[in-house]
Amino acid sequence: MGSFTLSGKTATLSDILRMLSPRSVAVIGASSDAESLRGRLMQVMLGHPYAGRVYPVSRSATEICGLAAYRSVAELPEIVDLAVLIIPARFVAEELERCGRAGIRTALILASGFAEEPGDDGAARQAEIKRIARRYGMAVSGPNSEGFANLAASLVPTFSPVMEFEEGAGPAASAARRPQLAVIAQSGGMGFAFYDRGRATGLDFRYVVTTGNEVCLETFDYVDALLDEGSVDIFLLLLEDVKRSDTFERVAAKALAAGKPLIVSKIGQSEPGQRAAAAHTAADAGDYARYRALFERYGVIEGRDHDEMLDIAAAFAAFGTRLPAGNRVGICTASGGGGGWLADACVAAGLEVPILDPLTRAAIDVHLPPYGTSQNPVDGTAQAIFSLGYAELARLVAASPEVDGVMVVASTRRAHTLERDRAALTALAQTATKPILFWSYTEIAPESVAVLGEAGLPLYRGMHNCARGMRAMAAYRAARERFLR
Amino acid sequence: MGSFTLSGKTATLSDILRMLSPRSVAVIGASSDAESLRGRLMQVMLGHPYAGRVYPVSRSATEICGLAAYRSVAELPEIVDLAVLIIPARFVAEELERCGRAGIRTALILASGFAEEPGDDGAARQAEIKRIARRYGMAVSGPNSEGFANLAASLVPTFSPVMEFEEGAGPAASAARRPQLAVIAQSGGMGFAFYDRGRATGLDFRYVVTTGNEVCLETFDYVDALLDEGSVDIFLLLLEDVKRSDTFERVAAKALAAGKPLIVSKIGQSEPGQRAAAAHTAADAGDYARYRALFERYGVIEGRDHDEMLDIAAAFAAFGTRLPAGNRVGICTASGGGGGWLADACVAAGLEVPILDPLTRAAIDVHLPPYGTSQNPVDGTAQAIFSLGYAELARLVAASPEVDGVMVVASTRRAHTLERDRAALTALAQTATKPILFWSYTEIAPESVAVLGEAGLPLYRGMHNCARGMRAMAAYRAARERFLR
Fold it and tell me: How far is B215 from chain A (nearest CA, A)?
């Protein structure tokens, strides 16, 4: 296992995993006051069925949210796996020192008021934290962080409002193991927003980690540890800066070798974005061109916003083991206009939409009215969709040696066509050797989401994101083959 | 008023308006069979409270959906304002001729099987329709169209599934007249999808017109007529081709002079997109670079998909009379990461995010904790948003002479912060002299949509669309000032 501090005592990747999956947690600064962030944190944590032990630590209260409170970490009945510090910045160093002396090896610091603050005081406080962490060899997350969520363990040390809407015990149990996602972001608001937007779509999130100022641990340290742990299949990373490019290169190579895509967005591509990153997490956002070159070298996939990154992840979640061998897509559609518009989007994303081979066309033509076309985009017209169904038309197109993946343009306003086609859609998803993605031009009925989700076929609202998803899979496969060669 | 046929008798713009707002309609090929398109059309039409008269015309039935049916248009009790033809392509010419002889001046042809079909038969049928239209000076919409919707009149001669979900009488009556939208698209599926996606957002649609093969009337003829009519403020146009560039230039100039933005997307930017357009509506999609040059000359705004076009329209609907004087935006945020990410999106869209002036900064700084910043993006932090509210922070930023518009980064997962701020948000929207747009990084609560919608402030899900909306307004104002100079 790698290590990540360069001097002083050394924390290990297993410490990071202990932080993310602790058996016991002390909350230093805990409160029952639901109007305060400290009280919200307790409410959110205790609102989830975490099986480990939670110890509130408070100088003023003896009981918090029904739990006995302790005056100091020194008085706890055990050496906890994780200390969460939600106290004013000026008290953090003193408490962190106390944690170190008590033998606690991991800490999460939620307070703001460190290097992101103008002037010298905050920077000095941050340097002091770094010194303490090294002295005791502690793994420290933050400061200026919004905490994290281990959804599989229902452990959510955060005051993120997003987690107040949780309904319980993390990803739904399902017969087949579905690909697991981890989100890692410096920004708490942005990080939890991935989960907030993505959970409704049927993606399985395992971790959301917000990293703040990254005084000790940075984004790629968490990726490194989670690659060792092995439960995460797809990573969504929102970066303000990369503090150690050697760590980045080593971890990106490790992820690529493991076939676990890193889907990133880099804040600070513009001058005002860089100014914002510096003010936000004291990040030195650096030269974006240099980042792009590194991303390209290691098959790191860039997305431009929450939804695009989630949509790319959805493509990998469904077809990550059946990546397209090239950039050529077949489009089938009931709407001629939709097929043409999506073809433009495909080309803009770097895909090709070639004319299909004669054998495939002949197999399709027998089902088309004279005003349809099998060229590609294949305009099945409403008539052929009605008689064949989306699944069979997609199967015919996917069989063409001229295409590496298929996109289906659908109206999912009503689910009845899909519901009638349920068995064929499931069979298609299971037997397909090429990715098959759906784009709905109309509003999407919840029943349509359910039918396609159960079948295992991704459904997109944005045609550009659908095209980007396909293109990202093809680019990732090419980068990986180049890398492993 | 202009005219639009080049030879033969001439229909006028008032004929187009009569077609879109008829007092009486004959449906040739009407049926009671809800499983057929002909029956669906009747169901959809009669499911809306249209105040005019509807006459089914059928060779086989004497009553359809509770209405007396007529064997021929020649037998109708009046000369109807509009004939809708939903019959097989091979019978269309004969029936259209009969309409012309009966003195009917406008016709909508829904059948497919014309010039979009390979081979000569379809093209010949289309040429025959053109001849008949000219002979009688009829305004003919289609063929190969999915019909239209006049939402103010609750007239919906279409079988679009989107219109089956209508709840009644078109745009909600409200005290203040809100800007009205018209959608015009060659593709039926794509055209009605604008309405389907947009109606939930509070946009007021007045017309959706799908134009099919455009044998007589093309997109800009409808725009021309609706500019004369005057009820439409914003146009959303999905083009496969422009058949007469002189018409386009004249109408685009007329729209720009009237201050009524044309928001377009052009299908056929790529080779496969052009192939699809040809197969779909026999369109010659042509050279995209030429289109772009024309769009630029006349301030025509390009959007890349449904949601981007609708999001741009939402910006104009709220701030069309208070367009930004330049490209400089102020960003205020409770999430430092969100501010930086949006700043990048703004720069990518062609906007600037300048550092604010000292006076404005001083007015903001008194409300910020030390770890916030007033530079721009203005990171108010959760603390300042809680004490000031989004409206007051936006007002302070908008007062800066350094910015032409403001964007607010918000979490709208819970509506309580906005609800508490309701009066201030309404006052802000009413008194602002610069556009103020909201972007939510979390999922959006329906109550948040309601509060901001009632206040008159657009709320975006996609940060890039928010930036594009602001940029489009600035570009439109600049183009218009150049044009009127």
Answer: 16
